[in-house]
Amino acid sequence: MSDPRPQDDLAGLFVLGLLDAAQRAAVERNLEHDAGLRARVAYWEERLLPLIKMVEPEPLPPTLWARIESSLWPAPSRSAAGAHASLAERLWDSLAFWRTLAATGFAAAMLLAVIGLPGTQTAAEPKFMVVLVAPEDKAPGWVVQASTTQSLKLIPLGMTEVPQARALQFWTKGKDWKGPVSLGLVQPGRPLDVQLKELPPLEHNQLFEITLEPEYGSPIGKPTGPILYIGRAVKVM
Amino acid sequence: MTSSTDEFDYEAALGACAAGERGALHRIYQLEGARLLAVALRIVRRRDVAEDVVHDAFVRIWEKAASFDPARGSGRGWIYSIVRHGALNHIRDHARETPADESLIEQTEHAGEGSVPDPYEQVLLASESGQLYDCLGRLDAPKRSSILLAYLEGCSHSEIAERLATPLGTVKAWIRRGLQSLKECMA
Fold this sequence. Notes:
Structural class of chain B: mainly alpha
Strand content of chain A: 15-25%
Oligomer: heterodimer
């Protein structure tokens, strides 16, 4: 209300490219969740679009399309493995996905400050802890706490965005195991209690990871999708 | 080229891009590439940079096609907004090295004292029709020029002030009121 400039102007100025860096960043942020702002920006994008008729087309250099093609589709032909990789790449490129991860970083720090110090626990003290982080930027997404060597609890530090018809699957692998063993599917943002009855007792440095899998889990009993979070067990002193 | 930009279904083409049909992106390029390059060139004023902007924009169009929402506006508007914002981002990050279009500078210099130069008057009166052009025609010349310099050339408030030899505060008010008048006129 105290803003002397009506919001319509902000959208109009954004489309004209006249906002300063801070205002522009604010508009770009708000566009994601403010449908009204999106509509006002779209209004000006549409209304001003006929201005492009004032610009005479420029001859296209013959190489430009080839450049675009080679950026988008670099390989001459794509194998099945290539198609697989591109799915993973799309995931890594998903802004929403990484934003969620970054947002959990602070939560993780808070949580570790509370539970991560030995001696502060009143109930069962964890014997092992694992912080599962995103492989690329190391943003923590989940914590594993184990009070015994035969059970553990997976605790989310935030929401993990899961694409349609996909699921998160939780895995572990001890030092001398042949491959990772599934600990089950994980609901984003929900804790999970896991009994390790048939598995060897937890050991220091045991690997844990969460991968993105088909809706009902990996069909082959081994991870098939990209690793979203990974970490190793640390024995709590 | 068999179909014109008036008949082309941009929304369907973007849908096809989202579905992985490379031909759809090429069709958009064939139809709009030359004008997109010109729009970018007007803003960045360097051909190699304008080509980079168009290149990046087409990569982005392909990658983001699935996120295009026809409820929010036309496909053609979306494509142009990607190129314009790409070009604007470039000039924000890199100071423009070459001076403004010489003919525009001349017009500015030759404008009579006391009157505000209007670099776009001739173009505007030429041949375009449509509601936006009717409404632009009703704006005072300085307001119209300010809006056109921003939209077409990516000029900042202070660049417009310089081009029109007018104080910054006045230019800001022109633009604000110009947008308001346009909106009322196009309602």
